[in-house]
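Narrative of activities, Objective 1.

The group set out to show that a structural description can be obtained from nothing but a protein's sequence at a throughput compatible with the screening campaign. Below is one input-output pair from the validation batch, recorded exactly as produced.
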Amino acid sequence: MSRTILIVDDEKNIVDILGFNLKKEGYDVIAAYDGGSGLETALATNPDLILLDIMLPVMDGFEVCRKFRETNNSTPIIMLTAREDETDKVFGLELGADDYITKPFSMREVIARVKTNIRRISTAEPPADTVKPVGLTIDSERYTAYRDGTPLDLTQREFELLRYLAERPGKVISREELLREVWQYEFLGDLRAVDVAVRRLREKIEKDSANPEHVMTKRGVGYYFREEG
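Output recorded for this entry:
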């Protein structure tokens, strides 16, 4: 089945180049040239992945990402940014973006990132068991986590991160391993994406994210899920 990529960018030449190369890879491509129409198109067409520029007319990419995530849609979003500012990159991840690519980019990198995110949502096969750490229920069949019986609003990646850690209680897992196994990036990707995702996850699953009970930090090494008992 062909996958659909939505490109939201106000530079037509970039849209044309991205569209041409993505179509060569077998993807269907739709485009929008400002943030307002990009959000409308995303909600109306439910694409498999969104390439979203930050600097857009009408509504910037940050606002598009925020409003789109407010609909509880977990479609992967890759932000496109011409700015190297660390704050911009982290802010996009905080809003729920899955990844970012800095302009000027290589088409090889874009295709690799797109394939990785599409493969992740295509091959996610939940295990049969339901994990039930104290206070949490991680239902892999429904791709939903609950805290004290209340469903949590997790993105797909946040759920996969939680499940990966919870299935290995007590084991300290490096950010490199999480990036490789959850993000499925070997050499691509940024370790800051892991830190941001852990922070967002804690805000959703912990009663007090500043004093977590479940997802713990091993300073200088990585993260682990606290064992029960």
